[in-house]
Records
---
Amino acid sequence: MKKVVLIEDSKTLAGALKGALEIEGVSVVWAPDGVQGVAAAKREKPDLVLLDLMLPKLSGFEVCKLLKTDNATWRIPVIIMSTLVDEESRLRAQEAGADYFIPKPYDLPATMAEIKKHLKI
Protein backbone atom coordinates (compact mmCIF):
# COMPACT_ATOMS: atom_id res chain seq x y z
CA MET A 1 0.00 0.00 0.00
CA LYS A 2 1.27 3.46 -0.93
CA LYS A 3 1.65 5.98 1.89
CA VAL A 4 1.30 9.77 1.81
CA VAL A 5 2.08 12.32 4.51
CA LEU A 6 -0.32 15.25 4.12
CA ILE A 7 0.88 18.44 5.80
CA GLU A 8 -2.09 20.81 5.75
CA ASP A 9 -3.44 23.12 8.47
CA SER A 10 -7.00 23.20 7.06
CA LYS A 11 -8.89 20.31 8.60
CA THR A 12 -11.56 20.60 5.88
CA LEU A 13 -9.11 20.43 2.97
CA ALA A 14 -7.10 17.68 4.66
CA GLY A 15 -10.24 15.62 5.28
CA ALA A 16 -11.42 15.90 1.67
CA LEU A 17 -8.05 14.97 0.21
CA LYS A 18 -7.47 12.20 2.77
CA GLY A 19 -10.86 10.69 1.90
CA ALA A 20 -10.20 10.83 -1.85
CA LEU A 21 -6.78 9.20 -1.43
CA GLU A 22 -8.08 6.47 0.87
CA ILE A 23 -10.74 5.57 -1.72
CA GLU A 24 -7.79 4.93 -4.07
CA GLY A 25 -6.22 2.60 -1.50
CA VAL A 26 -3.59 5.09 -0.32
CA SER A 27 -2.70 5.27 3.37
CA VAL A 28 -2.67 8.92 4.58
CA VAL A 29 -0.98 10.36 7.66
CA TRP A 30 -2.16 13.91 8.35
CA ALA A 31 -0.07 16.56 10.11
CA PRO A 32 -1.67 19.96 10.88
CA ASP A 33 1.59 21.95 11.14
CA GLY A 34 5.14 22.00 9.84
CA VAL A 35 6.82 20.57 12.94
CA GLN A 36 4.46 17.57 13.09
CA GLY A 37 4.79 17.21 9.32
CA VAL A 38 8.58 16.86 9.40
CA ALA A 39 8.31 14.37 12.28
CA ALA A 40 5.64 12.35 10.41
CA ALA A 41 7.70 12.23 7.21
CA LYS A 42 10.78 11.02 9.11
CA ARG A 43 8.76 8.46 11.09
CA GLU A 44 6.52 7.15 8.29
CA LYS A 45 8.96 7.23 5.31
CA PRO A 46 6.06 7.88 2.90
CA ASP A 47 6.03 7.46 -0.88
CA LEU A 48 4.98 11.12 -1.24
CA VAL A 49 4.58 14.31 0.83
CA LEU A 50 1.73 16.72 0.05
CA LEU A 51 2.67 20.07 1.54
CA ASP A 52 0.86 23.36 2.09
CA LEU A 53 3.10 26.46 2.24
CA MET A 54 1.25 28.54 4.82
CA LEU A 55 1.52 26.46 7.97
CA PRO A 56 1.80 27.13 11.69
CA LYS A 57 5.19 26.65 13.42
CA LEU A 58 7.26 25.96 10.27
CA SER A 59 6.39 27.24 6.79
CA GLY A 60 6.06 24.81 3.92
CA PHE A 61 9.23 26.28 2.43
CA GLU A 62 11.14 25.39 5.61
CA VAL A 63 9.56 21.93 5.80
CA CYS A 64 10.47 21.18 2.18
CA LYS A 65 14.05 22.35 2.68
CA LEU A 66 14.40 20.28 5.88
CA LEU A 67 13.06 17.15 4.16
CA LYS A 68 15.20 17.62 1.04
CA THR A 69 18.42 18.14 3.04
CA ASP A 70 17.93 15.18 5.41
CA ASN A 71 19.56 11.86 4.44
CA ALA A 72 16.48 9.96 5.65
CA THR A 73 13.93 11.90 3.59
CA TRP A 74 15.61 13.61 0.63
CA ARG A 75 14.40 11.04 -1.90
CA ILE A 76 10.71 11.45 -0.99
CA PRO A 77 8.88 13.48 -3.67
CA VAL A 78 7.23 16.65 -2.35
CA ILE A 79 4.18 18.18 -4.02
CA ILE A 80 3.39 21.72 -2.90
CA MET A 81 -0.32 22.60 -2.74
CA SER A 82 -0.81 26.30 -2.06
CA THR A 83 -2.75 29.51 -2.64
CA LEU A 84 0.65 31.25 -2.89
CA VAL A 85 0.80 31.02 -6.68
CA ASP A 86 2.92 34.09 -7.48
CA GLU A 87 6.17 33.57 -9.35
CA GLU A 88 8.32 34.29 -6.26
CA SER A 89 6.53 31.62 -4.18
CA ARG A 90 6.81 29.05 -6.97
CA LEU A 91 10.52 29.83 -7.32
CA ARG A 92 11.08 29.59 -3.55
CA ALA A 93 9.27 26.22 -3.52
CA GLN A 94 11.44 24.98 -6.38
CA GLU A 95 14.60 26.22 -4.63
CA ALA A 96 13.50 24.42 -1.44
CA GLY A 97 13.41 21.19 -3.46
CA ALA A 98 9.72 20.77 -4.34
CA ASP A 99 9.06 18.26 -7.10
CA TYR A 100 5.73 19.72 -8.28
CA PHE A 101 3.39 22.64 -7.55
CA ILE A 102 -0.42 22.47 -7.50
CA PRO A 103 -2.23 25.81 -7.07
CA LYS A 104 -5.21 26.07 -4.69
CA PRO A 105 -8.08 25.99 -4.98
CA TYR A 106 -7.33 22.78 -6.77
CA ASP A 107 -9.44 20.70 -9.10
CA LEU A 108 -9.78 17.37 -7.26
CA PRO A 109 -9.79 15.03 -10.31
CA ALA A 110 -6.73 16.76 -11.83
CA THR A 111 -4.98 16.83 -8.46
CA MET A 112 -5.69 13.14 -7.86
CA ALA A 113 -4.33 12.33 -11.34
CA GLU A 114 -1.09 14.19 -10.54
CA ILE A 115 -0.76 12.50 -7.14
CA LYS A 116 -1.36 9.07 -8.70
CA LYS A 117 1.28 9.81 -11.33
CA HIS A 118 3.85 10.59 -8.60
CA LEU A 119 2.81 7.48 -6.65
CA LYS A 120 2.95 5.39 -9.84
CA ILE A 121 -0.54 3.95 -9.31
---
Amino acid sequence: MSSTHDDGTRTSGSTSPTSALVVALAWLLVSVPLAYGLWQTLVKAAQLLG
Protein backbone atom coordinates (compact mmCIF):
# COMPACT_ATOMS: atom_id res chain seq x y z
CA MET A 1 0.00 0.00 0.00
CA SER A 2 1.30 3.47 -0.82
CA SER A 3 0.13 6.90 0.17
CA THR A 4 0.32 10.18 -1.72
CA HIS A 5 1.41 13.41 -0.03
CA ASP A 6 0.09 16.87 -0.84
CA ASP A 7 3.10 17.54 -3.06
CA GLY A 8 2.38 14.44 -5.16
CA THR A 9 5.21 12.27 -3.86
CA ARG A 10 4.47 8.68 -2.95
CA THR A 11 5.77 6.68 -0.05
CA SER A 12 5.46 3.02 0.73
CA GLY A 13 3.42 1.91 3.70
CA SER A 14 6.43 0.62 5.62
CA THR A 15 8.86 3.23 6.89
CA SER A 16 11.56 2.70 9.46
CA PRO A 17 12.56 5.40 11.93
CA THR A 18 16.00 6.91 11.46
CA SER A 19 18.43 6.17 14.26
CA ALA A 20 19.48 9.14 16.37
CA LEU A 21 23.09 8.09 15.85
CA VAL A 22 22.70 8.24 12.06
CA VAL A 23 21.15 11.69 12.31
CA ALA A 24 23.94 12.90 14.60
CA LEU A 25 26.63 11.55 12.27
CA ALA A 26 24.95 13.17 9.27
CA TRP A 27 24.86 16.54 11.04
CA LEU A 28 28.50 16.12 12.02
CA LEU A 29 29.45 15.22 8.46
CA VAL A 30 27.88 18.46 7.22
CA SER A 31 28.65 20.86 10.05
CA VAL A 32 32.38 20.22 10.45
CA PRO A 33 33.33 21.26 6.89
CA LEU A 34 30.79 24.08 7.05
CA ALA A 35 32.33 25.43 10.26
CA TYR A 36 35.83 25.15 8.80
CA GLY A 37 34.77 27.03 5.67
CA LEU A 38 33.08 29.72 7.70
CA TRP A 39 36.18 30.10 9.88
CA GLN A 40 38.45 30.38 6.82
CA THR A 41 36.12 32.98 5.30
CA LEU A 42 36.25 35.08 8.47
CA VAL A 43 40.06 34.82 8.63
CA LYS A 44 40.43 35.86 4.97
CA ALA A 45 37.94 38.72 5.41
CA ALA A 46 39.86 39.97 8.44
CA GLN A 47 43.10 39.95 6.43
CA LEU A 48 41.41 41.74 3.56
CA LEU A 49 39.75 44.41 5.68
CA GLY A 50 42.34 44.74 8.42
